[in-house]
């Protein structure tokens, strides 16, 4: 695929993209752990959530509302299903963008069963009228349905059975404080360590009937950008390579060779990520350079560079955002095997990112 011909929509086709495509959704359904004991990683969140659920079961009550925040692909949907399973309750799944009117939310809430879990993904993208209705539903298990328009409009109170709302968001800062405050338990999902991702890869390989040795799992885990969804996607592509080019066993060499074909390097950077770094280093001497200029240099939209490539590059310490523009770090020069230029000291006597 030629990155010069891509659009924002095409960004989802990247092998290391965190969004789930249809294949990911089908595979994740088969690989998804069924209880907290099977769930790998997020130890603090699992321990805290286990206490919340155990206490609710002991009281014979519905669990407190739960807010899960964190990057895509870390297991928020999986945890919502585990919450329902642990509570022995059905689950209803919807998303913020699907609720554009208060009536949409009222229809969902009024059909809930007692104790049911309502999973609301991307809750920060819900419309404001629906959000205000949700305040009362979460706190008082009641909503006011407006019938009619204008001066003759009437509010009819509708009692709701007790339910548990599990909200998921990738941008917790966009949630208004009144909504955040109504969640009894809030958890932030962290990126996974390589050793945790190795366990994820081994578990997924066993469920997919893929033969893999520890070194092969470690190679895939190290390139998975701290995200289980990406680890599982890379595992499937390496499996294909091993079946066609080898005897089906995934070793370190087979995993490395397979991911080289798919242009995912040892740090998890793909062609777009390296394109941004190469433009920054080779065309602009490491920066600073404006985001729009950098986007033009790599043939991408500004939003694609800012929202798709930059977050991982910044997290990896390869790129820095400064008031003057984007700047490459010494680690970026080292990763691409290039020598950074000598930079003079700044006016206040301190050195810049590269030193003297």
TrEMBL record:
<dbReference type="GO" id="GO:0009378">
    <property type="term" value="F:four-way junction helicase activity"/>
</dbReference>
<feature type="binding site">
    <location>
        <position position="192"/>
    </location>
    <ligand>
        <name>ATP</name>
    </ligand>
</feature>
<dbReference type="GO" id="GO:0048476">
    <property type="term" value="C:Holliday junction resolvase complex"/>
</dbReference>
<dbReference type="InterPro" id="IPR003593">
    <property type="entry name" value="AAA+_ATPase"/>
</dbReference>
<keyword id="KW-0347">Helicase</keyword>
<feature type="binding site">
    <location>
        <position position="321"/>
    </location>
    <ligand>
        <name>DNA</name>
    </ligand>
</feature>
<feature type="binding site">
    <location>
        <position position="78"/>
    </location>
    <ligand>
        <name>ATP</name>
    </ligand>
</feature>
<feature type="binding site">
    <location>
        <position position="326"/>
    </location>
    <ligand>
        <name>DNA</name>
    </ligand>
</feature>
<feature type="compositionally biased region" description="Polar residues">
    <location>
        <begin position="345"/>
        <end position="356"/>
    </location>
</feature>
<keyword id="KW-0234">DNA repair</keyword>
<dbReference type="GO" id="GO:0005524">
    <property type="term" value="F:ATP binding"/>
</dbReference>
<keyword id="KW-0227">DNA damage</keyword>
<dbReference type="Pfam" id="PF05491">
    <property type="entry name" value="WHD_RuvB"/>
</dbReference>
<feature type="binding site">
    <location>
        <position position="77"/>
    </location>
    <ligand>
        <name>Mg(2+)</name>
    </ligand>
</feature>
<feature type="binding site">
    <location>
        <position position="229"/>
    </location>
    <ligand>
        <name>ATP</name>
    </ligand>
</feature>
<feature type="region of interest" description="Disordered">
    <location>
        <begin position="335"/>
        <end position="356"/>
    </location>
</feature>
<keyword id="KW-0547">Nucleotide-binding</keyword>
<keyword id="KW-0963">Cytoplasm</keyword>
<feature type="binding site">
    <location>
        <position position="76"/>
    </location>
    <ligand>
        <name>ATP</name>
    </ligand>
</feature>
<dbReference type="GO" id="GO:0016887">
    <property type="term" value="F:ATP hydrolysis activity"/>
</dbReference>
<feature type="domain" description="AAA+ ATPase">
    <location>
        <begin position="62"/>
        <end position="193"/>
    </location>
</feature>
<dbReference type="InterPro" id="IPR004605">
    <property type="entry name" value="DNA_helicase_Holl-junc_RuvB"/>
</dbReference>
<feature type="region of interest" description="Head domain (RuvB-H)">
    <location>
        <begin position="266"/>
        <end position="356"/>
    </location>
</feature>
<dbReference type="InterPro" id="IPR008823">
    <property type="entry name" value="RuvB_wg_C"/>
</dbReference>
<protein>
    <recommendedName>
        <fullName>Holliday junction branch migration complex subunit RuvB</fullName>
        <ecNumber>3.6.4.-</ecNumber>
    </recommendedName>
</protein>
<dbReference type="InterPro" id="IPR027417">
    <property type="entry name" value="P-loop_NTPase"/>
</dbReference>
<feature type="binding site">
    <location>
        <position position="77"/>
    </location>
    <ligand>
        <name>ATP</name>
    </ligand>
</feature>
<dbReference type="InterPro" id="IPR041445">
    <property type="entry name" value="AAA_lid_4"/>
</dbReference>
<keyword id="KW-0378">Hydrolase</keyword>
<comment type="function">
    <text>The RuvA-RuvB-RuvC complex processes Holliday junction (HJ) DNA during genetic recombination and DNA repair, while the RuvA-RuvB complex plays an important role in the rescue of blocked DNA replication forks via replication fork reversal (RFR). RuvA specifically binds to HJ cruciform DNA, conferring on it an open structure. The RuvB hexamer acts as an ATP-dependent pump, pulling dsDNA into and through the RuvAB complex. RuvB forms 2 homohexamers on either side of HJ DNA bound by 1 or 2 RuvA tetramers; 4 subunits per hexamer contact DNA at a time.</text>
</comment>
<feature type="binding site">
    <location>
        <position position="302"/>
    </location>
    <ligand>
        <name>DNA</name>
    </ligand>
</feature>
<comment type="subunit">
    <text>Homohexamer. Forms an RuvA(8)-RuvB(12)-Holliday junction (HJ) complex. HJ DNA is sandwiched between 2 RuvA tetramers; dsDNA enters through RuvA and exits via RuvB. An RuvB hexamer assembles on each DNA strand where it exits the tetramer. Each RuvB hexamer is contacted by two RuvA subunits (via domain III) on 2 adjacent RuvB subunits; this complex drives branch migration. In the full resolvosome a probable DNA-RuvA(4)-RuvB(12)-RuvC(2) complex forms which resolves the HJ.</text>
</comment>
<keyword id="KW-0238">DNA-binding</keyword>
<dbReference type="InterPro" id="IPR008824">
    <property type="entry name" value="RuvB-like_N"/>
</dbReference>
<dbReference type="GO" id="GO:0000400">
    <property type="term" value="F:four-way junction DNA binding"/>
</dbReference>
<feature type="binding site">
    <location>
        <position position="31"/>
    </location>
    <ligand>
        <name>ATP</name>
    </ligand>
</feature>
<feature type="binding site">
    <location>
        <position position="73"/>
    </location>
    <ligand>
        <name>ATP</name>
    </ligand>
</feature>
<feature type="binding site">
    <location>
        <position position="182"/>
    </location>
    <ligand>
        <name>ATP</name>
    </ligand>
</feature>
<feature type="region of interest" description="Small ATPAse domain (RuvB-S)">
    <location>
        <begin position="193"/>
        <end position="263"/>
    </location>
</feature>
<dbReference type="GO" id="GO:0006281">
    <property type="term" value="P:DNA repair"/>
</dbReference>
<feature type="binding site">
    <location>
        <position position="32"/>
    </location>
    <ligand>
        <name>ATP</name>
    </ligand>
</feature>
<dbReference type="GO" id="GO:0005737">
    <property type="term" value="C:cytoplasm"/>
</dbReference>
């Amino acid at each position: 695929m030629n990155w010069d011909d891509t659009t924002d929509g095409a960004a989802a086709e990247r092998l290391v993209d965190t969004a789930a495509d249809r294949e990911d959704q089908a595979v994740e359904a088969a690989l998804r752990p069924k209880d907290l004991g099977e769930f790998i990683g997020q130890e603090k969140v699992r321990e805290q959530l286990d206490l919340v659920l155990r206490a609710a079961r002991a009281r014979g009550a519905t669990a407190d509302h739960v807010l899960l925040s964190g990057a895509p692909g870390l297991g928020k949907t999986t945890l919502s299903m585990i919450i329902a399973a642990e509570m022995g309750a059905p689950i209803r799944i919807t998303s913020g963008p699907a609720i554009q009117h208060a009536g949409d939310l009222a229809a969902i809430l009024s059909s809930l069963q007692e104790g049911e879990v309502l999973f609301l993904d991307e809750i920060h993208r819900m419309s404001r009228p629906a959000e205000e209705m949700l305040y009362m539903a979460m706190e008082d298990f009641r909503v006011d349905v407006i019938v009619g328009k204008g001066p003759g409009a009437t509010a009819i109170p509708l009692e709701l059975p007790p339910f548990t709302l599990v909200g998921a968001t990738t941008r917790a800062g966009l949630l208004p404080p009144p909504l955040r405050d109504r969640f009894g338990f809030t958890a932030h999902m962290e990126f996974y360590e390589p050793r945790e991702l190795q366990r994820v890869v081994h578990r997924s390989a066993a469920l997919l009937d893929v033969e893999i040795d520890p070194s092969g799992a470690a190679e895939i885990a190290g390139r998975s950008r701290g995200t289980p969804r990406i680890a599982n996607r890379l595992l499937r592509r390496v499996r294909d390579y091993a079946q066609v080019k080898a005897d089906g066993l995934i070793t370190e060499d087979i995993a490395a060779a397979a991911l080289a074909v798919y242009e995912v390097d040892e740090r998890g950077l793909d062609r777009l990520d390296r394109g941004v770094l190469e433009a920054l280093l080779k065309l602009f001497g490491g920066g600073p350079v404006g985001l729009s200029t950098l986007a033009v240099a790599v043939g991408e939209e500004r939003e694609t560079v800012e929202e798709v490539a930059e977050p991982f590059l910044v997290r990896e310490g390869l790129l820095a955002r400064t008031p003057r523009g984007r700047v490459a770090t010494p680690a970026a020069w080292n990763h691409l095997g290039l020598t950074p230029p000598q930079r003079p000291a700044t006016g206040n006597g301190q050195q810049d990112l590269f030193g003297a």
